[in-house]
Amino acid sequence: MFGQNQVPDRSLQKTVNQRLERTGTGAQSKVTATVQQGTVTLSGALQYENQRRPIVKAVGNIAGVRRVVDQLKSPPKRRPQS
């Protein structure tokens, strides 16, 4: 049923979840992932915008991931105090 390079979604979901735990997204960040036919959709809220790139890259480098859809929400930009 699966091609040589295709990883079952269930296995991929487990690997993605483990990778997210290791990326250290921080206690205030709530990032979740869903996997469907090798496409990983990341959703949730980031604590800091600079967390986005490492998370997307870490997930995208997992064997079997065909595509990463970034639906992560950034924190609101703070206005400098005068």
TrEMBL record:
InterPro entries xref list: BON_dom
Residue span(s) of domain BON: 8-76
Stored Pfam families: BON
Start and end residues of each stretch annotated as Disordered: 1-31
Compositional bias segments (type: Polar residues): 1-18
Protein name according to UniProt: LysM domain/BON superfamily protein
Gene3D superfamilies xref list: 3.30.1340.30
Organism: Posidoniimonas corsicana
PROSITE patterns, per database record: BON
